[in-house]
Inverse folding.
């Protein structure tokens, strides 16, 4: 097998080229080839400088993640980087695409870096629960300073080439079309000059002179980093770059890296990395299935969901026709969309020209006939089966043959909705999550007659509009809401048995969720779905609505809220709950946080097992993707099914049994056999 690394001598410059598609990952053969290239440069007296570049779409975009967990084969990346830096002849990294993770560490080990303006550089290992492991945390601060290095290492977002030039990470920008030539010329210009080795840099002294940099960074990014181990390890490693010698600093980095690599958080985050990619694969659908061109999309309903859904397509450059029944509702909905875009522009995430460009693709209408030539129509109307069937029957008569008809229902039966049409094969569910222009998850609901090309097109389109899509079968609540209902059921029972509702919320906050069930109710609005009759009170929720406690928007729901929306438990709500518990004859008792946690989370795992048993989810990892992207399940636990694997399915079953809760046949048999979901 030929090496992915080739070498070519151009005059007095050795050009080392990697061609390891798709992203020039730094697998063993690439590392070996790089090391041999550097050795060749050292041996040949006619070679006076070296350029390292990559063919294909990108510079080295990171380590070969498929090697994780396997017996390492030399040379290691730290060895290769040390060999590059030790060269007595100037070595230039020629960067296009992305230089990420190990790729950025290779660039840091080079003596100079030249990049095209469209390139990006970064150390995103923290997103896999790790820190750089080839001295990236030591070389980077020495090159650009601790203050500039911290966000790159501890948050992990890449920086564009222009910013990299400004902070000193890149030495020169090349023209987009002449990177190799510019890099060779740059390398020649450095022959005979003293070699600047990154490990000998002194920019990291900013963190020694002002040690507050680290605490200020923690305070500023505390919310993003909450619960994660890797960002704190990254800060510790960057700090070590200023306090320790380079050799001791790299030893510290290695110690921190190995601890993270063997820990549950990185294992969980690596699981999620692969899970998101696996979710794109559809059981029973060939990868080469022909796709339906989607050049125009119709949306029915310009409310919060419909407007948010439309924005996804407009932002991706796809024209949208949005339908409402009344001009006032149409004007209000399109006005909210523009305002949302303008707020994004104010935050610097898009320009006003882009706002105008997106809105120019929108055609508001009151006439169903204007949807006739759409390739995809998504309804986002009131959650009523009768209403939805009426809409789909009308669409079936109006919209061209071969177009996809989708429902944004969060709960209703897609097959029944499809029965209102003469084209059930072209009907499926596209369940967006609110706010639809922000939330990444999209549940793609596969009806019993949904065609392969319809499903494959929807999955491909989801990527184009920036969503993480997961295929679900048809069942009440699909994957996410079906499991959520089990958690809510237990939350409601717990407060009737004596648990404080704020303790129920706090248990989930401590686990890593952004909010608990009662906070979530207040945020969404307790009056959603309320019958509006204050004299008819049969549940705690109805009692709160009757008392005008509609949630955050009213300044009071389960909690009382101040002007900054800070919550405090309410005596009125405590009394309402106590009255309901008394009427139901529920004996009150102290309930531990352990019991609360088990009763909230274990039934979800059990429901996930049933979803798999019934074939409603293709794989356990798809369930994890749904919960991480749609419901705030903490990424560092890997999702509900991976978390259950981590704590042991036998522990889950024992907990369910001890609380007298249902245990599915498949969960019990897996636990007894010592098996895992993933």
């Amino acid at each position: 097998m030929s090496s992915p690394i080739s070498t070519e001598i151009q005059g007095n410059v050795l050009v080392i080229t990697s061609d390891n598609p798709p992203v020039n990952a730094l697998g063993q053969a690439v590392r070996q080839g790089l090391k041999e290239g550097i050795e060749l440069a050292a041996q040949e007296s006619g070679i006076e400088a070296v350029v390292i570049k990559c063919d294909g779409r990108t510079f080295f975009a990171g380590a070969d993640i498929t090697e994780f967990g396997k017996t390492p084969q030399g040379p290691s990346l730290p060895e290769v980087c040390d060999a590059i830096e030790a060269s007595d002849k100037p070595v230039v990294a020629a960067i296009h695409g992305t230089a990420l993770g190990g790729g950025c560490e290779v660039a840091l080990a080079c003596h100079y870096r030249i990049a095209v303006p469209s390139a990006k550089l970064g150390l995103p290992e923290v997103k896999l629960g790790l820190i750089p492991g080839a001295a990236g945390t030591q070389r980077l601060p020495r090159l650009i300073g601790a203050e500039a290095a911290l966000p790159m290492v501890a948050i992990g977002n890449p920086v564009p080439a222009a910013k990299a030039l400004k902070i000193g990470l890149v030495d020169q920008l090349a023209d987009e079309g002449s990177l190799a030539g510019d890099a060779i010329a740059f390398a020649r210009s450095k022959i005979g000059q003293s070699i600047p080795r990154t490990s000998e840099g002194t920019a990291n002294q900013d963190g020694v002179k002002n040690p507050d940099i680290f605490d200020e960074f923690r305070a500023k990014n505390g919310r993003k980093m909450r619960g994660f181990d890797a960002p704190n390890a990254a800060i510790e490693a960057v700090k070590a770059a200023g306090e320790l010698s380079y050799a001791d600093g790299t030893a510290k980095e290695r110690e921190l890296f190995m601890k993270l690599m063997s820990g549950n958080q990185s294992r969980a985050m690596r699981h999620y990395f692969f899970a998101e990619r696996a979710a794109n694969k559809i059981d029973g659908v060939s990868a080469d299935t022909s796709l339906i061109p989607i050049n125009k999309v119709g949306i029915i309903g310009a409310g919060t969901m419909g407007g948010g859904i439309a924005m996804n397509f407009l932002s991706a450059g796809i024209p949208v026709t949005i339908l409402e029944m009344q001009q006032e509702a149409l004007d209000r909905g399109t006005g909210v969309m523009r305002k949302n875009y303008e707020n994004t522009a104010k935050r610097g995430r898009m320009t006003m020209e882009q706002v105008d460009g997106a809105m120019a693709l929108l055609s508001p209408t009151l006439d169903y006939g204007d949807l006739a030539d759409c390739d995809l129509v998504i309804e986002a109307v009131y959650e009523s089966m009768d209403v939805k069937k009426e809409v789909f029957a009308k669409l079936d008569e109006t919209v061209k043959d071969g177009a996809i008809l989708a429902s944004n229902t969060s709960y209703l039966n897609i097959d029944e909705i499809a029965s209102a049409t003469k084209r059930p094969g072209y009907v499926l569910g596209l369940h967006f999550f609110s706010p639809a222009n922000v939330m990444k998850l999209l549940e793609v609901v596969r009806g019993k007659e949904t065609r392969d090309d319809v499903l494959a097109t929807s999955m491909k389109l989801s990527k184009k509009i920036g969503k993480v899509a997961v295929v679900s079968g048809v069942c009440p609540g699909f994957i996410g809401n079906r499991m959520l209902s089990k958690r809510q059921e237990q939350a409601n029972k717990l407060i009737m048995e004596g648990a404080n509702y704020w303790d129920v919320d706090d248990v989930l906050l401590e686990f890593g969720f952004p909010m608990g069930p009662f906070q979530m109710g207040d945020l969404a609005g307790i009056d959603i779905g309320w019958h509006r009759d204050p004299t008819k009170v049969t549940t705690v929720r109805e009692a709160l609505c009757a008392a005008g406690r509609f949630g955050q928007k009213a300044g009071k729901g389960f909690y009382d809220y101040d002007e900054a929306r800070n919550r405090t438990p309410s005596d009125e709500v405590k009394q309402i709950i106590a009255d309901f518990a008394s009427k139901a004859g529920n004996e009150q008792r102290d309930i531990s946080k352990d019991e609360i946690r088990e009763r909230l989370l274990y039934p979800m795992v059990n429901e996930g097992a049933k979803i798999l048993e019934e074939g409603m989810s293709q794989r356990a990892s798809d369930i994890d993707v749904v919960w991480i992207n749609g419901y705030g399940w903490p990424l560092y636990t890997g999702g509900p099914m991976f978390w259950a694997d981590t704590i042991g399915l036998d522990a889950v079953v024992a907990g369910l049994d001890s609380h007298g809760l249902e245990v599915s046949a498949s969960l019990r048999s897996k636990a007894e056999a010592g098996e895992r979901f993933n």
User: Anything to note?
Assistant: DSSP finds 28 helices and 19 strands in the chain. The mean pLDDT is 96. The first strand starts at residue 5 and ends at 10.
